[in-house]
Amino acid sequence: TAIEETLVLVKPDGVARNLTGEILRRIEAKGYSLVDLKLVQADRDLLAKHYAEHEGKPFYEPLVEFMESGPVVAMRIAGNRVIEGFRSLAGATDPTTAAPGTIRGDFGRDWGLKVQQNLVHGSDSVESAERELALWFA
Ligand code: DAT
Ligand code: MG
Description:
Layout: E1 3-10, H1 12-16, H2 20-29, E2 33-40, H3 44-50, H4 60-67, E3 72-80, H5 82-90, H6 103-107, E4 120-122, H7 126-136
Antiparallel strand pairs: 1-3, 1-4, 2-3
The structure holds 2'-deoxyadenosine-5'-diphosphate (DAT) and magnesium ion (MG).
The site of 2'-deoxyadenosine-5'-diphosphate has 9 residues, from loops.
């Protein structure tokens, strides 16, 4: 087995649309465990560190502005292969093409805004998860 922990964020659009419970319900229904959870108003410094890999890309500024536009729910989630497993629950980055049955596929769509408002973030590797959990649950 490979028991892992991952960082899940319910982004400002997910919190504003009252989807936090539905997202957590899916995580728990899959059998993953909630280890820690908090509502956070992220500041620029935290978001710059969180999204350092995307600095300089055309969507970076609108992404950071979107992420600081309202509170996010940060969750520490544990389970066997949960990093890959949550990415699978979340679905593809673009909510228009994310498969039905996934969080982004079922609830997300292209709102015609500058940045994809795709409801959730999930760490993409063991290294990212360790780095991101240290940032959000310092
Ligand atoms: P993911 O969130 O699926 O890991 P990512 O790490 O590549 O995707 O990008 C981080 C976020 O940035 C993503 O959730 C939405 C936004 N984003 C990514 N690619 C984008 C693009 N081409 N246009 C607009 N926003 C984008
Ligand atoms: Mg990513």
